[in-house]
């Protein structure tokens, strides 16, 4: 005879519909239109940065770059909810969050322009650098969260990954650690529907990616990832739980990658423009602008001023980035170990006569 | 007198490091209540508590990654991988992350962790328990690789590995865990992580070995002494960075070199030793360099492992060959 051993359900949260109308009730922070305008500004700023970075790559002045076009609500919603003392363990499309946490545009451009100093950012000193091997950052997040728990700190770690990363063993192992030790950790799956050319449905037969949390015994929630209010709300709730000893959460933010995977990719090889066009109607920036405008909390003049300020900021970042002198060749050697072993000193002398 | 086996020396070094530095943690599968399957962490849970001796879920890649996160936060984690064949799962974490955090963040985030595991064969262990993966880790810039071959060296090298500001892989020869006892005082100092040890002096041939092969090299030297052949036996101990100066100085005296490794021959650490001598000590050589190694085969199951493992007989034969070279 079979009986039910366990049941689960995955809730989905949305506060702002694709047409820019509210789905109530809203959380406390969203009662203040100024707070929503601040997130709107951050999303526009992220988009302006992405546009600049892609333009620099197209003109040979930046390396391969992963734009977050269409996913700005995920990056900004995370960044708006985090505190300075929390730690971000990103994948490679989290510039929206990084910018909010104080990583500068010049530092981001330096990294994507092929200079390690871009990861030695002055702002959030404990945040991890970008992680390129997909999902392999998840166990680091668990280790950092374990460190916080061992010290009894009221801090939390946010580990961001794409939909493809949920297929990796590293992620399963990290979720398992987070559950066993009730770690102060929030996993965010930035589900943009495409892992380069592989669509979400070909990544896993699971109905949602959020339910990957269920097997590890941590809290799970799916949010509309193009609704910055829902993303921030879910993050604040998960971070509060994490900081107060309530354990880890996995949030699947359902969004859509309007850009190519990176500047080295051509998404027309594997998806129809028609599909992309449909998703332009759900993108997060216009959605919030529609609500703000309707609420009388955003004007044409403010929009123009914001766009002008963003243009100026990204231009200044470009100027600063391009004016940054290259690192000395010696730096290739100098950070391999705390002190140069004899053989490496010999090789350095050969490379730097 | 504080006589210890090699595994007891590892245990004592862990205990001392934990007593002296509250940032030192031990984590891994069965390291807590069970004290580790080889008892390397025995007694640590009772003495230091579950906040510092952490039984992890069964996930080797995750354990390595967890240690990276802890190290980045200022802890000094010592992660145990239960058997050598399970270390391969950690290579992604050790290669892509532990070894490069300092470089890729330009020193902002560092990774002072130890990944330790039993290694090598000779104890009739099950499949995947007798691997010699040292060359794979030694190939990775940013890692140090240490293979102790005696209780005293295990103690001193483990203390140094834990104190080192960078990631260190320590491979402990399973066959030597309980092979002998020697005096290892509680206050023995850390040993340098860039130094080989000359265990026996001789003027006819240099024999370089590490880990489980060191006692075989010493017994070959003993047998050869009866034939009037004097072998200088060097325990490399730290494979990365390699103490080539000690090897070159010895070869300059003896003119003959035999390198012994338990790992498969091709692309092993012995090839690196031979290449260094070819580059910087060729004119000292009076005979071709000889390598005595495991075959380029899968490590056999126990019934045939003796056919794979280099032993004193094969080492002595190689030395005789180099001596016979005109």
TrEMBL record, chain A:
SUPFAM superfamilies reported in the protein's UniProt record: Thiamin diphosphate-binding fold (THDP-binding)
Q: Which Gene Ontology BP terms does the record give? A: branched-chain amino acid catabolic process
Q: Does the keyword Oxidoreductase apply?
A: yes
- Note the CDD domains from the entry: TPP_E1_PDC_ADC_BCADC (cd02000)
* Molecular-function annotations in GO: pyruvate dehydrogenase (acetyl-transferring) activity
Q: Name one Pfam family in it.
A: E1_dh
Q: What is its EC number?
A: 1.2.4.1
Which keywords does UniProt give here? Oxidoreductase, Pyruvate, Thiamine pyrophosphate
Q: Which cofactors, by name?
A: thiamine diphosphate
Q: Which reaction does it catalyse?
A: N(6)-[(R)-lipoyl]-L-lysyl-[protein] + pyruvate + H(+) = N(6)-[(R)-S(8)-acetyldihydrolipoyl]-L-lysyl-[protein] + CO2
Domain Dehydrogenase E1 component, chain residue ranges per copy: 40-318
Q: What does this protein do?
A: The pyruvate dehydrogenase complex catalyzes the overall conversion of pyruvate to acetyl-CoA and CO(2). It contains multiple copies of three enzymatic components: pyruvate dehydrogenase (E1), dihydrolipoamide acetyltransferase (E2) and lipoamide dehydrogenase (E3).
* Subunit-level organization: Heterodimer of an alpha and a beta chain.
Q: What is this protein called?
A: Pyruvate dehydrogenase E1 component subunit alpha
Q: Which organism is it from?
A: Neoroseomonas oryzicola
Gene giving rise to this polypeptide:
pdhA
UniProtKB/TrEMBL annotation, chain B:
**KW Oxidoreductase (keyword) present:** yes
The coenzyme or cofactor needed here is: thiamine diphosphate
Tell me which SUPFAM superfamilies the record gives: Thiamin diphosphate-binding fold (THDP-binding), TK C-terminal domain-like
Transketolase-like pyrimidine-binding domain spans which residues? 4-179
What GO terms are given for molecular function?
A: oxidoreductase activity
Q: Which Gene3D superfamilies match?
A: 3.40.50.920, 3.40.50.970
Family matches, as SMART domains: Transket_pyr
Q: Could you name the domain of life of the organism this protein comes from? A: Bacteria
**Name this protein carries in UniProt:** Alpha-ketoacid dehydrogenase subunit beta
Q: Which organism is it from?
A: Neoroseomonas oryzicola
What taxonomic lineage is listed for the species of origin? Bacteria, Pseudomonadati, Pseudomonadota, Alphaproteobacteria, Acetobacterales
